[in-house]
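TODO from last week: model VOC family protein.
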Amino acid sequence: MPTPYEGNLHRAGALPYLTVARARDAIDWYVRAFGATVVGDPIVMDDGRIGHAELNFPSGMVYLADEFPEMGLTAPVGGATSVSLMLPVDDTDAVLAHAREAGGTVERWITESNGHRNATLIDPFGHRWMLAGPLTGGPATDTQ
């Protein structure tokens, strides 16, 4: 018996939908720091908040919207986040450096393990991004 998910196998899993404070700033940051592109025009609600925006990353799509606390949708606060986003990249070192210069906070410096060159950073909007690129054999970094 077919499952209700057959036919959707071309998709790469669940699509992240981020709730952020200052959605316009977040869109600009993701474009600058990660090279995302905005797909279409964001939907702007009557009160000026972004109700929906689509960002295309080289490895997939991310949706985002401003906070809507009246609906229970709030951004991460105080270093508390329940979801980490795995972001495949071509050059972990370059993406980490660029995102850090753009205002991201490094949570875990570069290591090589499990077949990837990894690093983790928190964006200025409280979301955790786990960068995973190809191994280089280069030194791991644990500081700036």
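Done. The mean pLDDT is 89.
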